Amino acid sequence: MPPAPSSRAARRQRLTRRRRVVAGGASTVIVGALTVGVFGFIGSLDEDPRGARAAPAPTAQRLAASDAQAADAPTFDVAAAADEAMTTLAGYSDAARATEDALYEASEVLRATATAAEADAALAATAQAADAVRADAEAYRASLVEASAATNTQPTGGDVAAQMSYLHQYVFDYNSAQWGDYNPYGGDCTNYAS
User: Fold this and answer.
1) Which of 66, 84, 108, 110 is most exposed by smallest CB count within 10 Å?
2) Phi and psi dihedrals of 34, rounded to 5?
C-alpha cells in the first residue's frame, strides 16, 4: 500500500525548499564566475608587458576542436528543459513524494548532461518522470472524488451546473438535515454557499 500523501502545506514547503536550493546553486555559480574573472584580471597584471605569451594553437586546429565539441554538444538548452519539467510540480503538487523526487532527480541528471546522447536520454527520462507525476496526481484526485461521492451529496468533479443548483437550493435554507445548523454556535461556516 503506498504511503499516504503528505499535506498540501508540506508539499509546498518541499517545493519552496527546492526552489531555494536551485537559487542558492545559481548564486554560487555566479559568485564563482565573478571570482574567476577578478583573479584572471589580477593575474594578467603580472604578465610580461612586452606581450610574451604562449603562441595560440593554429587556426585550423582550433576550428577542428570547436567543431568536434559542437557536434557532440546537446541540440537543445538542457537547463531550460529541466526547468520546464520542474514546472510540472506547480500544477501537480499533490503527487506522491517519491514520484515528485524521481522527477527532481531526473531533471538534475538532465541539467548535468554534456553530450547530445546523454541529453537526449536524460530528456526522455525526465519526460517520463513528469508524466508519472501527472498520472499520480490525477489518480489521487480521482480517488478523492470517488471517496467523497459515497458520503457527500454535494456535487463534485467539476460539474458546475450541479454545483450551482445545489448552491441555489441551500443558500438560504441550509442542508441542515445532512450537515447540521451551527448558527447558534457562532456561524454557518459549514454551508459552502455562505
Assistant:
1) 66
2) -65, -40
Q: Which helix (H) or strand (E) holds 137?
A: helix 116-151
* Residues recorded for the chain: 194
Asked which of 66-70, 92-96, 121-125 is least confident by mean pLDDT, the reply is 66-70
User: Are the CB atoms for 103 and 130 separated by under 8 Å?
Assistant: yes
Whole-number Å distance between alpha carbons of 54 and 42: 18
Q: What is the pLDDT of residue 3?
A: 55
* Grid cell listed for 98: 517519491
pLDDT digits (tens, 9 = 90+) for 82-106: 999 889 888 888 888 999 999 999 9
Taking the CA of residue 131 as centre, how many other CA atoms within 13 Å lie in the half-sphere pointing to its CB?
Answer: 6
